[in-house]
Amino acid sequence: MVEIFQNIRKIYVFSDPCEALKPYIEFFSESSIPDGLAAVGNNFSSVKMFPSWTPTFYINLGTPYYIDLKAKRYLIKVAEDILILRNDDITRHKLPADHLYTIKFNPGGLEAILGINQLSLADKITDLRQVLPLRLLDNIRRAENFEVRTALMQNYLLRVFERQQTKDHFIGLVNDAIGEYTTSGMSLSTSHVAERVFVTSKTINRYFNRIIGISPKAYFSMLRARTALTAYVSRQDEFVPFDFGYYDISHFHKDVIRFTGKKLTQHKI
């Protein structure tokens, strides 16, 4: 299974974060085994995820599974919980008894809440026990359902976030820049985004490399491709490349190949 081309969201239930955490967390989720497997049939033996530079917690509530990262395969054991940055292609190999609870942060969100700069997470798998209290992880594993797990995790993250003495100006500016790019139809150049957040191109480059780990140009290009491809897969008959800053369908197609390694015609939408 290829992320976006095949909708892996079908096998998960989701919850949005509270308002205070919304700028920093994209979602809480949990794999929904019976409904999920029925939805995707036999296609879901593995899922290839494309770079997003979004720190993600994977709390293992089920059986062991494998993850491929940087051409190396890792076994994630029972009750072993991990943190990955998703700065490169990652493939997770799924078994029928898999059961994962997931928290996906926005770029810079982990630093804003827990004070952990995501650059330190690049190209590796981090033991989540280095980040979260063991007691919290045990309580989440023993919780009776997704809603209870989410309440436990969100309450903990909110308490830690509220104890932060200062708010990082770098993170705020990066979030503002991403917002400007997104709401502009993803057509603005880096220099134009910089103007809208009242900094120079040199400054915005420094901030993005400090918070996310890549240049704003590279991040915006990746964000546009992922957003456009998601829209294309969802409503192919209504897809308009201009809505995402592309000149035409050929321009969009080139980005799909660059980020996925596959042509649109190779996938049944």
UniProtKB/TrEMBL annotation:
It comes from the Bacteria. GO terms for molecular function: DNA-binding transcription factor activity; sequence-specific DNA binding. Residues 168-269 form the HTH araC/xylS-type domain. InterPro entries: HTH_AraC (IPR018060). This is HTH araC/xylS-type domain-containing protein. It comes from Pedobacter duraquae.
